[in-house]
Amino acid sequence: MTASGAAPRAGRREWTGLAVLTLPTLLLSLDLNVLYLALPQLSADLAPDAAQLLWIMDIYGFMIAGFLVTMGTLGDRIGRRRLLMIGAAAFGVASVVAAYSTSAGMLIATRALLGVAGATLMPATLSLISNMFRDARQRTTAIGLWMSCFMIGAIVGPLVGGVLLESFWWGAVFLLGVPVMVVLLVAAPLLLPEYRNPDAGRLDLFSVLLSLATVLPFVYGLKELAKDGVGARPVLAMVAGVAVGVVFVARQRRLDSPLLDVRLFADRTFSAALGVMLLGGATIGGVALLFAQYAQLVAGLSPLRAGLWMLPYAVSMLIGSMLAPVLGRRFVPGHVVAGGMAIAAVGFALLSRVGAADGLGLAVTGLVIVYLGFGPGAVLGTDLIIGAAPPERAGSASSMSETSTELGVALGVAVLGSVGTAVYRGEIAPALPGDLPAQVREAAGESLAGASAVTGQLPAQTGDALLEAARAAFTSGFNVAGTVSAVLAVILAVLSALLLRRVRPADEPAGAVPAAPAGGTDEASAPARG
Q1: Phi, psi of 265, deg, nearest 5
Q2: Which of 110, 112, 225, 395 is most solvent-facing, going by the fewest CB within 10 Å?
Q3: HSE on the CB side for 57, CA within 13 Å?
């Protein structure tokens, strides 16, 4: 702190360092998007079976979600810049190995390593931002720029992937990470400060195992629910994850140097912002998945054209993210988040009106509104989480911020995906012709993708009628998911306004809100939302 009591302001070096910190964020987003376009070539070359193909897609996310807590806290212990550089080097090496994988099993293994390395990058960059930008206004702006780069990756990912795949083999999409990580490794020691908690203590390996045994089964269960609906295996996996989570939390309370500092949850700003990020991610994750299927299977777009139709709402969230620092300085952050979610609710409501025949434009318009409203909340929510934690626990707070978003997206995919699937199966069953072969009936009754795959086995008129019915049934599920998301967005808007009402704008004087009573932790006790 300066002599006047104000937080020190960042200078040219910090802002230049921020450009370095945005590189892994941009890369991770781009890497997620380009793989979808590479799947056809990858499948033709490596010939993975159905289970292997799912693991190629899912293992990366599993590893990121499972290791976020560990890596965020590890950065507090060994140094956040050091962890960032270790992760960048590992990510670059794993990217090369993935690009030249000779079998599906090898690619699955390297994707797992990419996930572990990726889990070091997001919390390390976010916690370093909290160290470099101590002034609340500057920190909000920095987080807005950091998050905007994630959206830029989503925007350019389909374009870069399409260009690469036109000229090179599928492995080229993985090599994108190599030059980015080389730049980061060269620039980080020159521009980024090192920070670690000298009193952090030793890493508790048993807590690491407990955290993995908590997150991985839970995320696995959510993904299985999204793919196959309610069943004994995913439910048991989620219950097991929750049970281990109870043991994990109990152990953290007893340790002098916990892997996850659960005392952070005593701060109501921190807990409320985490909840906002979790539920907000849930509303976004489900409809994004359903739209991707709608664009390709209902509107009949190629993967590249579907990716191009996703650009408008990615740009929309970029705009919303850039507006967050300005709005957060002038208005109560809780009101900004609430207003954004109310706007998102309007977009979700439009999704409930999308038709199967000519609904692509309305669907994209709805998603543009959704992401415009969600952008400020994502930035300010992240800022509130990071600002509520003391500097020595910034890594732990960053990891929880990222974990809540990951779990929220997985939860939304599972719940809204299951809702869409249930509606589809309910509507398609009576629409199926009675003389269909059993295998065709079973495939068409499971999903729109199944119906699309088997229509070629039928006479043209029967196949066209089946596909039209399947598309209508899927669109109905999409509509219901939009309605559910709209209701959740309204609820989230009300909760944001209530739970974050005492967090003052960054431009408001420090004495504008009374301090919390002695012995309690409240939003008002943190200087300028920090």
Answers
A1: -70, -10
A2: 112
A3: 17
